[in-house]
Design brief:
By secondary structure, the protein is an alpha+beta fold. The protein contains six helices and six strands, in the order ααααααββββββ. The strands form two sheets. Strands 1-2-5-6 form a four-stranded antiparallel β-sheet, with no helix packed on it. A two-stranded antiparallel sheet has the order 3-4. Residues 36-148 form the NOT2/NOT3/NOT5 C-terminal domain.
């Protein structure tokens, strides 16, 4: 109770607010999202300048684009890494990971990096599940392949 008396904003969060106090007409058939324009400005947005006169050239309407599934095996590794890192939690990220895996890239769970074996160096086998040696690693900071000892 003390918090609610001392901090009116806290009371609004706990108890709630009457929508009418912030200008919403709850009896209207109009959607609420059309009644609220901005949290900071009550004025409706201005119409775009020459919005009705704009026409998209027909050459920008592309309809014969093949789905990414049929093209992903043709992408270079840099493009696959870009898809992987720029499409988190998306089907495209999964497709890029599958294609990278088919090209002998592996995701290192501990270091959170993509790596592949260096063809010129044979890793030292420490145990059935562990190796030590030089690997080619995809460096996301410099966006290139680097050779590292892991």
């Amino acid at each position: 109770r003390t918090l609610m008396n001392n901090y009116p904003d806290y009371q609004a969060m706990v108890v709630g607010m009457d929508p009418i106090t912030i200008g919403l007409d709850i009896n209207s058939q109009e959607m609420i999202s059309t009644q609220v324009y901005s949290l900071f400005d009550d004025a409706p947005p201005r119409p775009t300048v020459n919005g009705s006169k704009f026409r998209l050239p027909e050459c920008y309407n592309v309809t014969n684009v093949q789905p990414i599934e049929s093209k992903i095996q043709n992408f270079n590794e840099e493009t696959l890494f870009w898809i992987f890192y720029s499409c988190p939690a998306d089907v495209k990220q999964q497709m890029a990971a599958v294609e990278l895996h088919s090209r002998n890239w592996r995701w290192h769970k501990k270091h959170q990096i993509w790596l592949t074996k260096d063809e010129h160096m044979t890793p030292q086998i420490l145990s059935p599940n562990h190796e030590r040696g030089f690997y080619i690693v995809w460096d996301t900071d410099n966006w290139r392949k680097d050779r590292r000892e892991l």
